[in-house]
Write a structure and sequence with these properties.
Blueprint: H1 38-41, H2 55-58, E1 83-86, E2 98-99, H3 101-106, E3 117-120, E4 130-133, E5 135-136, H4 138-146, E6 150-153
Parallel strand pairs: 1-3, 2-4, 3-5, 4-6
Length: 154
């Protein structure tokens, strides 16, 4: 066998279809594109699905803040959800206790930590506590500090 003897296997190659070369070729006139319509003329509009409602219009609208494709009054898409705890809920702990999100879960004050725990100033607190949380309201911080306790942000 020599290099000049090499050729593709029988039936593995095909002749290129020559179009637009007159009626005798079988591919003249409309060159295999049929009559009229987008497919005969070039390309369809991007996203066109033959008259069916296109995918980009079937999708739900983006929700969120105004200016981000949403309407006024919808909650932000990446909004953080905090587990809220009022000071009155901390009354069940003994004086001097270190209150953390884990102790709040164990005592069933909250069901889930979510994106963090926020302590709110609603209710009265009568004990000195050390409270560890992700956020505090101003009134909660003031009431905890007034009793000699500490509010530490995580």
């Amino acid at each position: 066998m020599k290099l000049d003897d090499l050729k593709p296997a029988e039936g593995s190659t095909h002749r290129r279809k020559q179009i637009g070369r007159g009626p005798g070729s079988g591919h003249g006139k409309t060159s295999g594109r049929g009559h009229k319509g987008d497919k005969s003329r070039g390309s369809s509009k991007l996203g066109f699905e033959g008259g069916q409602t296109p995918f980009h219009r079937r999708q739900p609208k983006q929700r969120g803040e105004p200016g981000q494709g949403g309407r006024v009054g919808h909650k932000p898409i990446r909004r953080k959800e905090f587990a809220l705890v009022n000071l009155r809920d901390l009354e069940r702990f003994d004086a001097g206790t270190v209150v953390t999100p884990e102790t709040l879960l164990a005592a069933r004050v909250i069901n889930d930590v979510r994106d963090g725990v926020k302590i709110l100033g609603d209710g009265a607190l009568s004990k000195q506590l050390t409270v560890h949380a992700h956020h505090f309201s101003k009134s909660a911080q003031e009431k905890i500090a007034a009793l000699g306790g500490t509010a530490e942000q995580l």
